[in-house]
Amino acid sequence: MRLLTRALCLCALGRQASFRRPVTAQEWCLRPGQRCWASIQAVGTRSALSSKFGVITRIMRPDDANVAGNVHGGTVLKMIEEAGAIISTRHCNSQNGERCVAALARVERTDFLSPMCIGEVAHVSAEITYTSKHSVEVQVHVMSENILTGTKKLTNKATLWYVPLSLKNVDKVLEVPPVVYSRQEQEEEGRKRYEAQKLERMETKWRNGDIIQPVLNPEPNTVSYSQSSLIHLVGPSDCTLHGFVHGGVTMKLMDEVAGIVAARHCKTNIVTASVDAINFHDKIRKGCVITISGRMTFTSNKSMEIEVLVDADPVVNNFVKRYRAASAFFTYVSLSPEGKSLPVPQLVPETEDEKKRFEEGKGRYLQMKAKRQGQAETQA
After folding, report:
1. Cα–Cα distance between 377 and 374 in angstroms, integer?
2. Interatomic CA distance for residues 70 and 67, integer angstroms
3. Is 94 a domain residue?
4. What mean pLDDT value characterizes the chain?
5. Which residues fall in a compositionally biased region of kind Basic and acidic residues (predicted)?
6. Helices 247-266/73-92 angle, 10° precision
7. What is the DSSP letter of 368?
8. Within a 10 A sphere around the Cβ of 237, how many other Cβ atoms?
9. Is residue 70 domain-shared with residue 175, that is, in the same domain?
Protein backbone atom coordinates (compact mmCIF):
# COMPACT_ATOMS: atom_id res chain seq x y z
CA MET A 1 0.00 0.00 0.00
CA ARG A 2 2.89 2.33 0.78
CA LEU A 3 4.34 1.70 -2.69
CA LEU A 4 0.99 2.43 -4.35
CA THR A 5 0.63 5.71 -2.40
CA ARG A 6 4.12 6.76 -3.45
CA ALA A 7 3.34 5.97 -7.12
CA LEU A 8 0.15 8.00 -7.11
CA CYS A 9 1.96 10.96 -5.55
CA LEU A 10 4.66 10.87 -8.20
CA CYS A 11 2.11 10.60 -10.97
CA ALA A 12 0.31 13.64 -9.61
CA LEU A 13 3.47 15.64 -10.20
CA GLY A 14 2.99 15.52 -13.94
CA ARG A 15 2.96 11.92 -15.15
CA GLN A 16 -0.31 10.57 -16.31
CA ALA A 17 -1.89 7.61 -14.54
CA SER A 18 -5.43 6.40 -14.00
CA PHE A 19 -6.58 3.15 -12.47
CA ARG A 20 -9.96 1.49 -12.67
CA ARG A 21 -8.99 -0.75 -9.76
CA PRO A 22 -6.07 -1.02 -7.31
CA VAL A 23 -2.87 -2.43 -8.76
CA THR A 24 -2.04 -5.89 -7.45
CA ALA A 25 1.38 -6.70 -6.04
CA GLN A 26 2.05 -9.00 -8.98
CA GLU A 27 1.34 -6.23 -11.52
CA TRP A 28 3.33 -3.73 -9.47
CA CYS A 29 6.43 -5.91 -9.58
CA LEU A 30 5.94 -6.92 -13.20
CA ARG A 31 7.79 -3.91 -14.66
CA PRO A 32 10.41 -2.44 -12.32
CA GLY A 33 11.42 1.12 -13.20
CA GLN A 34 8.17 1.94 -14.98
CA ARG A 35 5.77 2.04 -12.01
CA CYS A 36 4.95 5.74 -12.03
CA TRP A 37 3.97 6.35 -15.62
CA ALA A 38 2.17 3.19 -16.75
CA SER A 39 -1.54 2.96 -16.25
CA ILE A 40 -2.78 -0.63 -15.99
CA GLN A 41 -6.52 -0.97 -16.45
CA ALA A 42 -8.70 -4.04 -16.25
CA VAL A 43 -11.82 -3.83 -18.36
CA GLY A 44 -14.82 -4.87 -16.30
CA THR A 45 -15.53 -5.54 -12.63
CA ARG A 46 -13.84 -7.74 -10.02
CA SER A 47 -14.11 -10.69 -12.42
CA ALA A 48 -11.68 -8.81 -14.69
CA LEU A 49 -8.84 -10.53 -12.84
CA SER A 50 -9.53 -13.41 -15.23
CA SER A 51 -10.68 -11.18 -18.10
CA LYS A 52 -9.47 -11.50 -21.66
CA PHE A 53 -9.03 -7.72 -22.01
CA GLY A 54 -6.55 -5.13 -20.73
CA VAL A 55 -5.36 -1.60 -21.50
CA ILE A 56 -2.14 0.33 -20.88
CA THR A 57 -2.08 4.11 -21.29
CA ARG A 58 0.86 6.52 -21.06
CA ILE A 59 2.16 9.76 -22.54
CA MET A 60 5.15 9.78 -24.90
CA ARG A 61 8.17 11.66 -23.53
CA PRO A 62 11.33 13.00 -25.24
CA ASP A 63 13.40 9.99 -24.16
CA ASP A 64 10.93 7.73 -26.05
CA ALA A 65 11.70 9.36 -29.41
CA ASN A 66 14.47 10.05 -31.90
CA VAL A 67 15.91 13.48 -32.70
CA ALA A 68 13.04 14.14 -35.15
CA GLY A 69 10.42 13.57 -32.43
CA ASN A 70 9.17 10.20 -33.77
CA VAL A 71 8.65 7.59 -31.06
CA HIS A 72 11.07 4.66 -31.38
CA GLY A 73 9.55 1.46 -32.71
CA GLY A 74 11.20 -0.37 -29.83
CA THR A 75 9.31 1.78 -27.32
CA VAL A 76 6.01 0.83 -28.96
CA LEU A 77 6.99 -2.86 -29.09
CA LYS A 78 7.86 -2.76 -25.39
CA MET A 79 4.43 -1.34 -24.50
CA ILE A 80 2.74 -3.95 -26.69
CA GLU A 81 4.58 -6.74 -24.88
CA GLU A 82 3.75 -5.28 -21.46
CA ALA A 83 0.03 -5.31 -22.22
CA GLY A 84 0.22 -8.87 -23.56
CA ALA A 85 2.23 -10.12 -20.58
CA ILE A 86 -0.21 -8.65 -18.06
CA ILE A 87 -3.41 -10.13 -19.48
CA SER A 88 -1.87 -13.52 -20.38
CA THR A 89 -0.33 -13.87 -16.89
CA ARG A 90 -3.65 -12.84 -15.35
CA HIS A 91 -5.54 -15.38 -17.47
CA CYS A 92 -3.11 -18.23 -16.77
CA ASN A 93 -3.59 -17.64 -13.02
CA SER A 94 -7.39 -17.34 -13.22
CA GLN A 95 -7.97 -20.86 -11.92
CA ASN A 96 -6.78 -22.64 -8.80
CA GLY A 97 -3.49 -24.39 -9.29
CA GLU A 98 0.22 -23.75 -9.59
CA ARG A 99 1.06 -20.06 -9.97
CA CYS A 100 2.87 -18.96 -13.13
CA VAL A 101 4.02 -16.01 -15.24
CA ALA A 102 3.51 -15.77 -19.00
CA ALA A 103 6.70 -15.60 -21.08
CA LEU A 104 6.79 -14.23 -24.63
CA ALA A 105 7.49 -16.92 -27.23
CA ARG A 106 6.76 -15.19 -30.54
CA VAL A 107 5.54 -11.94 -32.08
CA GLU A 108 3.83 -12.14 -35.46
CA ARG A 109 4.42 -9.53 -38.16
CA THR A 110 3.75 -6.03 -36.80
CA ASP A 111 3.10 -3.06 -39.07
CA PHE A 112 3.68 0.53 -37.98
CA LEU A 113 0.69 2.14 -39.66
CA SER A 114 1.31 5.70 -38.51
CA PRO A 115 4.11 7.46 -36.58
CA MET A 116 3.61 8.47 -32.95
CA CYS A 117 5.15 11.71 -31.65
CA ILE A 118 6.30 13.25 -28.38
CA GLY A 119 3.37 14.52 -26.30
CA GLU A 120 0.83 12.08 -27.72
CA VAL A 121 -0.84 9.52 -25.48
CA ALA A 122 -0.55 5.84 -26.38
CA HIS A 123 -3.53 3.58 -25.65
CA VAL A 124 -2.46 -0.07 -25.87
CA SER A 125 -5.39 -2.51 -25.74
CA ALA A 126 -4.86 -6.27 -25.58
CA GLU A 127 -7.26 -9.19 -25.95
CA ILE A 128 -6.79 -12.95 -25.63
CA THR A 129 -8.10 -14.47 -28.84
CA TYR A 130 -7.01 -18.12 -28.62
CA THR A 131 -5.54 -20.62 -26.18
CA SER A 132 -3.96 -23.99 -26.87
CA LYS A 133 -2.95 -26.45 -24.17
CA HIS A 134 0.32 -24.63 -23.44
CA SER A 135 0.10 -21.23 -25.16
CA VAL A 136 -1.92 -18.01 -25.31
CA GLU A 137 -2.53 -15.83 -28.36
CA VAL A 138 -2.91 -12.12 -27.61
CA GLN A 139 -3.93 -9.50 -30.18
CA VAL A 140 -2.92 -5.91 -29.43
CA HIS A 141 -4.02 -2.58 -30.93
CA VAL A 142 -2.21 0.71 -30.32
CA MET A 143 -4.01 4.04 -30.68
CA SER A 144 -2.28 7.43 -30.41
CA GLU A 145 -4.18 10.42 -29.07
CA ASN A 146 -3.36 14.09 -29.51
CA ILE A 147 -4.60 15.42 -26.16
CA LEU A 148 -4.72 18.99 -27.49
CA THR A 149 -7.09 18.25 -30.37
CA GLY A 150 -8.59 14.94 -29.26
CA THR A 151 -7.58 13.31 -32.56
CA LYS A 152 -6.97 9.55 -32.37
CA LYS A 153 -5.43 7.20 -34.91
CA LEU A 154 -4.49 3.54 -35.12
CA THR A 155 -0.70 3.16 -35.16
CA ASN A 156 -0.06 -0.55 -34.60
CA LYS A 157 -1.63 -3.99 -34.68
CA ALA A 158 0.23 -7.03 -33.34
CA THR A 159 -0.26 -10.68 -32.43
CA LEU A 160 1.83 -12.25 -29.65
CA TRP A 161 2.16 -15.79 -28.29
CA TYR A 162 2.91 -16.53 -24.63
CA VAL A 163 3.61 -19.69 -22.63
CA PRO A 164 2.97 -20.00 -18.86
CA LEU A 165 6.07 -20.84 -16.81
CA SER A 166 5.83 -22.15 -13.26
CA LEU A 167 6.93 -19.82 -10.45
CA LYS A 168 8.58 -22.81 -8.81
CA ASN A 169 10.45 -24.02 -11.89
CA VAL A 170 10.95 -21.71 -14.90
CA ASP A 171 11.66 -24.68 -17.17
CA LYS A 172 8.22 -26.14 -16.50
CA VAL A 173 5.45 -25.09 -18.90
CA LEU A 174 1.98 -25.27 -17.34
CA GLU A 175 -1.39 -25.83 -18.95
CA VAL A 176 -3.46 -22.80 -19.99
CA PRO A 177 -7.08 -22.38 -18.82
CA PRO A 178 -9.34 -22.50 -21.89
CA VAL A 179 -11.24 -19.44 -23.06
CA VAL A 180 -14.90 -19.36 -24.04
CA TYR A 181 -15.47 -18.44 -27.69
CA SER A 182 -18.58 -16.62 -28.81
CA ARG A 183 -18.50 -18.49 -32.14
CA GLN A 184 -17.16 -21.93 -33.08
CA GLU A 185 -15.36 -20.36 -36.05
CA GLN A 186 -13.18 -18.31 -33.69
CA GLU A 187 -11.68 -21.44 -32.17
CA GLU A 188 -11.08 -23.04 -35.57
CA GLU A 189 -9.43 -19.90 -36.96
CA GLY A 190 -7.28 -19.62 -33.85
CA ARG A 191 -6.16 -23.24 -34.19
CA LYS A 192 -5.09 -22.58 -37.78
CA ARG A 193 -3.03 -19.56 -36.66
CA TYR A 194 -1.47 -21.65 -33.90
CA GLU A 195 -0.42 -24.44 -36.29
CA ALA A 196 0.96 -21.91 -38.80
CA GLN A 197 3.14 -20.07 -36.27
CA LYS A 198 4.33 -23.38 -34.81
CA LEU A 199 5.54 -24.47 -38.24
CA GLU A 200 7.25 -21.11 -38.91
CA ARG A 201 9.07 -21.28 -35.56
CA MET A 202 10.53 -24.63 -36.53
CA GLU A 203 11.73 -23.23 -39.87
CA THR A 204 13.69 -20.39 -38.18
CA LYS A 205 15.86 -22.66 -36.02
CA TRP A 206 18.30 -23.30 -38.85
CA ARG A 207 19.64 -19.77 -38.38
CA ASN A 208 20.90 -20.51 -34.87
CA GLY A 209 24.46 -21.07 -36.05
CA ASP A 210 24.65 -17.93 -38.19
CA ILE A 211 27.11 -15.37 -36.75
CA ILE A 212 27.70 -11.79 -37.91
CA GLN A 213 31.43 -11.08 -38.19
CA PRO A 214 33.01 -7.58 -38.37
CA VAL A 215 34.92 -6.51 -41.51
CA LEU A 216 37.78 -4.00 -41.65
CA ASN A 217 37.49 -0.94 -43.94
CA PRO A 218 34.19 -1.87 -45.63
CA GLU A 219 32.92 -0.01 -48.69
CA PRO A 220 29.82 2.24 -48.45
CA ASN A 221 26.44 0.62 -49.22
CA THR A 222 27.77 -2.86 -48.49
CA VAL A 223 26.43 -5.17 -45.79
CA SER A 224 29.62 -4.84 -43.76
CA TYR A 225 29.53 -1.03 -43.85
CA SER A 226 26.30 -0.70 -41.87
CA GLN A 227 26.24 -3.88 -39.78
CA SER A 228 26.18 -3.10 -36.07
CA SER A 229 26.24 -4.80 -32.68
CA LEU A 230 25.20 -3.83 -29.18
CA ILE A 231 26.40 -5.58 -26.02
CA HIS A 232 24.19 -5.44 -22.94
CA LEU A 233 24.60 -6.89 -19.45
CA VAL A 234 21.23 -8.15 -18.23
CA GLY A 235 20.37 -6.58 -14.88
CA PRO A 236 17.47 -6.95 -12.42
CA SER A 237 15.49 -4.09 -14.00
CA ASP A 238 15.44 -6.02 -17.30
CA CYS A 239 13.92 -9.13 -15.77
CA THR A 240 10.72 -10.69 -14.47
CA LEU A 241 10.36 -12.07 -10.96
CA HIS A 242 11.75 -15.30 -12.38
CA GLY A 243 15.03 -13.62 -13.24
CA PHE A 244 14.78 -13.84 -17.04
CA VAL A 245 14.50 -10.95 -19.48
CA HIS A 246 11.14 -9.41 -20.45
CA GLY A 247 10.41 -9.96 -24.12
CA GLY A 248 9.70 -6.23 -24.47
CA VAL A 249 13.22 -5.34 -23.28
CA THR A 250 14.74 -7.66 -25.87
CA MET A 251 12.56 -6.23 -28.66
CA LYS A 252 13.48 -2.66 -27.74
CA LEU A 253 17.20 -3.48 -27.95
CA MET A 254 16.67 -5.26 -31.28
CA ASP A 255 14.91 -2.21 -32.70
CA GLU A 256 17.73 0.07 -31.52
CA VAL A 257 20.33 -2.00 -33.36
CA ALA A 258 18.18 -2.23 -36.50
CA GLY A 259 17.75 1.55 -36.39
CA ILE A 260 21.52 2.07 -36.19
CA VAL A 261 22.04 -0.18 -39.22
CA ALA A 262 19.40 1.72 -41.21
CA ALA A 263 20.79 5.14 -40.22
CA ARG A 264 24.34 4.14 -41.15
CA HIS A 265 23.15 2.97 -44.55
CA CYS A 266 20.98 6.02 -45.36
CA LYS A 267 22.56 8.86 -43.35
CA THR A 268 19.02 10.26 -42.87
CA ASN A 269 16.19 10.14 -40.36
CA ILE A 270 14.72 6.63 -40.33
CA VAL A 271 11.64 5.05 -38.76
CA THR A 272 10.42 1.49 -38.23
CA ALA A 273 7.90 0.49 -40.89
CA SER A 274 7.25 -3.10 -39.82
CA VAL A 275 8.66 -6.05 -37.93
CA ASP A 276 8.48 -9.54 -39.32
CA ALA A 277 7.86 -12.39 -36.90
CA ILE A 278 10.13 -12.22 -33.84
CA ASN A 279 11.00 -15.69 -32.56
CA PHE A 280 12.24 -16.20 -29.00
CA HIS A 281 14.22 -19.41 -29.15
CA ASP A 282 15.31 -19.55 -25.51
CA LYS A 283 15.08 -17.60 -22.25
CA ILE A 284 17.73 -15.03 -21.31
CA ARG A 285 18.61 -15.07 -17.62
CA LYS A 286 19.74 -12.31 -15.32
CA GLY A 287 23.52 -11.87 -15.40
CA CYS A 288 23.88 -12.93 -19.04
CA VAL A 289 25.75 -10.76 -21.51
CA ILE A 290 23.67 -10.45 -24.68
CA THR A 291 24.96 -9.42 -28.08
CA ILE A 292 22.38 -7.94 -30.43
CA SER A 293 23.68 -7.90 -34.02
CA GLY A 294 22.06 -6.40 -37.10
CA ARG A 295 22.84 -6.46 -40.81
CA MET A 296 21.15 -5.20 -43.95
CA THR A 297 19.74 -8.03 -46.06
CA PHE A 298 17.66 -6.29 -48.75
CA THR A 299 16.73 -2.85 -50.08
CA SER A 300 13.87 -1.83 -52.34
CA ASN A 301 13.47 1.69 -53.73
CA LYS A 302 12.12 3.05 -50.45
CA SER A 303 12.59 0.41 -47.75
CA MET A 304 15.32 -1.60 -46.04
CA GLU A 305 15.15 -5.07 -44.49
CA ILE A 306 17.46 -5.68 -41.54
CA GLU A 307 18.08 -9.04 -39.89
CA VAL A 308 18.65 -8.88 -36.12
CA LEU A 309 20.10 -11.76 -34.09
CA VAL A 310 20.31 -11.97 -30.30
CA ASP A 311 22.95 -14.20 -28.69
CA ALA A 312 23.18 -14.81 -24.94
CA ASP A 313 26.39 -15.62 -23.09
CA PRO A 314 25.92 -16.90 -19.50
CA VAL A 315 29.28 -15.54 -18.28
CA VAL A 316 28.67 -16.65 -14.69
CA ASN A 317 27.90 -20.24 -15.71
CA ASN A 318 30.73 -22.25 -17.25
CA PHE A 319 28.41 -25.17 -18.00
CA VAL A 320 26.17 -23.29 -20.45
CA LYS A 321 27.56 -22.18 -23.82
CA ARG A 322 26.62 -19.10 -25.81
CA TYR A 323 23.26 -19.63 -27.56
CA ARG A 324 20.86 -17.94 -29.96
CA ALA A 325 18.01 -16.39 -27.95
CA ALA A 326 15.96 -14.48 -30.55
CA SER A 327 15.86 -13.45 -34.22
CA ALA A 328 13.75 -11.21 -36.44
CA PHE A 329 13.58 -9.05 -39.58
CA PHE A 330 12.88 -5.31 -39.27
CA THR A 331 11.83 -3.03 -42.13
CA TYR A 332 12.78 0.66 -42.08
CA VAL A 333 12.06 3.62 -44.31
CA SER A 334 14.07 6.82 -44.85
CA LEU A 335 12.40 10.18 -44.21
CA SER A 336 13.16 13.77 -45.16
CA PRO A 337 13.11 16.56 -42.51
CA GLU A 338 9.51 17.18 -43.64
CA GLY A 339 8.58 13.54 -42.96
CA LYS A 340 8.32 12.46 -46.59
CA SER A 341 9.63 9.12 -47.84
CA LEU A 342 13.07 9.22 -49.48
CA PRO A 343 14.77 6.81 -51.91
CA VAL A 344 17.06 4.29 -50.20
CA PRO A 345 20.67 3.74 -51.37
CA GLN A 346 20.77 0.31 -52.98
CA LEU A 347 22.56 -2.41 -51.03
CA VAL A 348 25.61 -3.97 -52.67
CA PRO A 349 25.86 -7.65 -51.65
CA GLU A 350 29.41 -9.00 -52.03
CA THR A 351 29.62 -12.60 -50.82
CA GLU A 352 27.54 -15.55 -51.95
CA ASP A 353 25.77 -15.65 -48.58
CA GLU A 354 24.91 -11.95 -48.85
CA LYS A 355 23.54 -12.44 -52.36
CA LYS A 356 21.47 -15.39 -51.14
CA ARG A 357 20.06 -13.37 -48.23
CA PHE A 358 19.31 -10.49 -50.63
CA GLU A 359 17.21 -12.77 -52.87
CA GLU A 360 15.41 -14.22 -49.85
CA GLY A 361 14.65 -10.69 -48.64
CA LYS A 362 13.40 -9.75 -52.09
CA GLY A 363 11.05 -12.72 -51.99
CA ARG A 364 9.65 -11.64 -48.61
CA TYR A 365 9.24 -8.07 -49.90
CA LEU A 366 7.36 -9.13 -53.05
CA GLN A 367 5.20 -11.54 -51.08
CA MET A 368 4.16 -8.85 -48.59
CA LYS A 369 3.61 -6.32 -51.41
CA ALA A 370 1.29 -8.74 -53.19
CA LYS A 371 -0.55 -9.41 -49.92
CA ARG A 372 -1.12 -5.69 -49.31
CA GLN A 373 -2.34 -5.19 -52.87
CA GLY A 374 -4.75 -8.10 -52.45
CA GLN A 375 -6.12 -6.65 -49.23
CA ALA A 376 -6.54 -3.23 -50.86
CA GLU A 377 -8.49 -4.76 -53.76
CA THR A 378 -10.69 -6.71 -51.35
CA GLN A 379 -11.52 -3.59 -49.34
CA ALA A 380 -12.24 -1.65 -52.52
Report:
1. 5
2. 8
3. yes
4. 84
5. 353-363
6. 160
7. H
8. 12
9. yes
